[in-house]
Every structure is written in structure tokens, then in C-alpha cells.
Amino acid sequence: MFVTTNIQERRPVFRNSAYAREAIETLYRIKEFYPFLLFGFAIMPDHCHLLLCLEAPQTISELMRKFKMGTSRNIGMGPIWQSRFHVKYPNNSQEALLYIHRNPVKAHLCDEPSDYPWSSASGKWEVQDLGW
Description:
alpha+beta, Alpha-Beta Plaits, 4-stranded antiparallel sheet
């Protein structure tokens, strides 16, 4: 699943690097208790992209609820997210991952995907290999 979720009013909450790091750490804490396969992500200033695969009986709604609530609580800002999220089932997961990793470059946040610290492209975060 390729999931995108936005901050309310597209406020750049995650320009604050402590908040961006906490969003990632929240995602990994949730993964410890409710296992899923995480292939890639980018925490952008005003939205997030995730490429993942859930294991039954989990649902994407429950996972996103935990991620959004956990991130909001952990950064101490109250509700920050739009209530909805967008899910695509990509035909080509590698293309979806490339899109996610190139998103910070497209937004002029860095020159190369690996330069952006709040993305799985940075190599700082453990993700599942797509097996390509």
C-alpha cells in the first residue's frame, strides 16, 4: 500500500526536525507492537508518504489511527492531521518507492534523495527490502 496523509491546513509541522524524528520513531514503535512490513517512507514538512504491507488482521485504518494519534501525542501538539488519508495499491512498488524517495528533491528540500534525513532513502532507518 502506498499511503499519503496530510497535516491540517498543510502546516509545515515537520520542518521541526525533532517532530520529524518523532514521527518516524512513532512509526517504528507501532511496528514493534503491531507488525507490518515497511518498505519506505518520507516525512515531508506537511505530509507523509508510506509504502507498507499489513499482516492480517490489521487494517490500514487502525494503523493510521495509531500513527496519527501517537505522533500528535508524542510531539505534544494535539490533533495535527487531516482526518483522512489516501491509499493506492501500486502496480509497481519500486516506482512507488522511487516517487516517495524523490519527493523531498521535488520539494527542493535536498539535492539527492539520500540527503534527506526524514526518509528511508537516507539509509538511517531500517526498512524491508522490496526484493528487486
